[in-house]
Amino acid sequence: MNIVIFTGAGISAESGIPTFRTNNGLWENHNIEDVCTLNGFNRNPTLVWNFYRDRYLNYSKALPNNAHYAITELQKYCKTKNINCSIVTQNVDGLHQKAGNEDVIELHGSITKFKCNECGEKTDKNLWESNKVLSCISQKCSGLMRPDIVWFGEMLPPSIDTALELSKKADKILVIGTSAQVYPAAEIATLGNQYNNAIVYEFNLKPYLSLFNEYYEFWKGSASKTVPKFVDEFMKV
Length: 237
Ligand code: BV8
Ligand code: ZN
Fold this sequence. Notes:
Layout: E1 2-7, H1 26-29, H2 32-35, H3 38-43, H4 45-59, H5 66-80, E2 84-89, H6 95-98, E3 104-106, E4 109-116, E5 122-123, E6 145-149, H7 159-168, E7 172-176, H8 187-196, E8 199-204, E9 216-220, H9 223-236
Parallel strand pairs: 1-2, 1-7, 2-3, 7-8, 8-9
Antiparallel strand pairs: 4-5, 4-6
The chain binds ligand BV8 and zinc ion (ZN).
Ligand BV8 binds at residues 8-10, 13-14, 19-22, 25, 36, 90-92, 108, 149-155, 177-179, 181-183, 203-205, 208, 222-223.
């Protein structure tokens, strides 16, 4: 059996990390064009640097919640039953890894990774200590360092292809805390349902996936309550 767990900002909401499009979300207080596009960075790198640095300072204090920990339990259980259980996240907050989740594909990058905007030189060194935009660490070019995060209009990393294949082969897809509006990531939620009649379990405060076949279950409520309940029931079967 193949399980794919696809997550968005909602799984981290109860860890104190704001979502994007719901209850006073990030995009309600910032113009996406200014802070989440390459043009925005080129126009005002300091604004973008501070937008992400503020988020990092919040994320670095955030702790995983029971939804993340339930996924760790599920992955441990799946290992004993020879079930594949992969995680594909749109989040850049690193909470899956903090909770001990394994095999995490970060489709939109990570807030603790950086690259040069010109030559692409990458580093995991924590550059957030600086509250100023930094020049390229390679010292070979006049570029500026930016978070290694996928902005709107930018290609996703090659791991998107792996994630799409995992979804196509999935028997169960757990879709946790996402409005499923951002592509191509949002395809992960339903591809397996189309290719493999995968059962899609949506964990959210209200339904976002418009799946009208019998291979769909909506688990209403906060992820920190619904995901542990699902995992407990799954492990009892
Ligand atoms: C690409 C960066 C092509 C990291 C993000 C026109 C022009 C250009 C592009 C496009 C276009 N039209 C469409 C596109 C494609 C575009 C796109 O999809 N736009 C959408 C908005 C229409 N996509 C792109 O641009 C992508 N790239 O297409 O490149 C290309 C091709 C060739 C060559 C070059 C380029 C890149 C997309 C990535 C953008 N980067 N973020 C960061 O800053 O964090 S997107 C941003 O949205 C985040 O990554 C986030 O993860 C993602 C999805 O949001 P969600 O996670 O779902 O969060 P949201 O707030 O929306 O929802 C939260 C949910 O949780 C809600 O449902 C809520 O009910 C629920 N919830 C809340 N609390 C709880 C809860 N659930 C459970 N429990 C709770 N307690
Ligand atoms: Zn450079």
